[in-house]
Amino acid sequence: MRWQIAIGTLFLAAASTEAGLAADPRYPDWPCTQAKVPEISLTAVWAGPPLDDIKDKWKDDAKVSPLVSRLAARRTSLDDAQKLITEFLGSPATDKATTGKLLFAGLFDSLNAQRASVMNGLERITRKQREAADKIRSDVSALHALQGASPPDQPKIDELNNQMVWQTRIFEDRQRVVKFVCEVPTAIDQRLFALGRMIQQEIE
Q1: Residue 191 near residue 132 (C-beta atoms within 8 A)
Q2: Going by C-beta distance under 8 Å and a sequence separation of 6 or more, which residues neighbour residue 16?
Q3: pLDDT confidence bin for 163, thresholds 50/70/90
Q4: Separate counts of helices (H) and strands (E) for the chain
Q5: Is 191 within 8 Å of 111 (Cβ atoms)?
Q6: Closest to 144 measured CA to CA, from 134, 152, 135
Q7: In which region does residue 69 sit, left (phi positive, over 0), alpha (psi from -120 to 50) or beta (all else)?
Q8: Average of per-residue pLDDT across 173-199
Q9: What mean pLDDT is predicted for residues 55-66?
Q10: pLDDT digits (tens, 9 = 90+) for 109-151
Q11: From CA 160, how far away is CA 184, in angstroms rounded?
């Protein structure tokens, strides 16, 4: 029993230390070691013609809008994306420059929204983890008190210990998920850059 309490306490201390090292004072709920960049910079992913004149017009284009959704989906490989872009912009009746701009504007909006959703989710998990850590610490203290009582209430001790073990397991599982999901915003950045390059090559 004491061994489990010690492990739980050490685990929480390590988790708190890790969180402290990763924290950005501007974003106290951001759990990743990567710096939080709230939005993708257009200039970092697009070197093509300016998009100022088209804004949200891609949403009203019956051909561009569904292709944006398909290209933005991570299940569409970059090889397949290249084929779709080449076929779409290679049509003789297509104004490559305008259509290419519409297509990238849609991808920029859509992938930025995906990215924001992932980042908001990470911060929600951080808040849940903070609450879970506080609860486990409280349970550890309560368990110490129960064990020190005379006579000890063994059923309550067992119940609280089992509860603490279960909560700690959930805490650890979430930490593993966070480490994986922390890579997603960067993957979205890279995907948007790659798609932008494909479109630029087709309209140049």
Answers
A1: no
A2: 133
A3: confident
A4: 7, 0
A5: yes
A6: 152
A7: alpha
A8: 94
A9: 92
A10: 999 999 999 999 999 999 998 888 888 888 888 888 888 888 8
A11: 37
